Amino acid sequence: MAGSLLLPPSHGSAGLTYRIHRSATADAVVFALSGDMDTEHATRLQEFLANEGTGPIALDLIDVTIVDRAAVRFLVGVEAAGVRLVNCPDYVRSWIAAERENQEQWLQEPDDPEPKQGD
User: Fold this and answer.
1) Buried-most residue among 45, 49, 81, 114 (CB within 10 A)?
2) pTM flag (> 0.70)
3) 3-class secondary-structure state, position 4
């Protein structure tokens, strides 16, 4: 089953749209994304992913133009959960790596660090 969803511009955007096109291949369900990806769009995509059940899923980001930090955090999470990101723009891939590193550092920091001498 294939289908597209064209989301209208977000409240703060200037006529920009975001499209999600779902298709199924022999190997995976593929969601081809295009346009600017923000928090609202990541939330909507999460709803679609939750309805897919089991089986391999891929997000094709070849036509994604701009992402915000919330969208990058979303991509970090879905990739960690096993969703494959394909055709990911280099700047998005770099941002994902940086965000993942920041999250790992945050998780490794002690809850109650001891004060350093001189503090």
Assistant:
1) 45
2) yes
3) strand
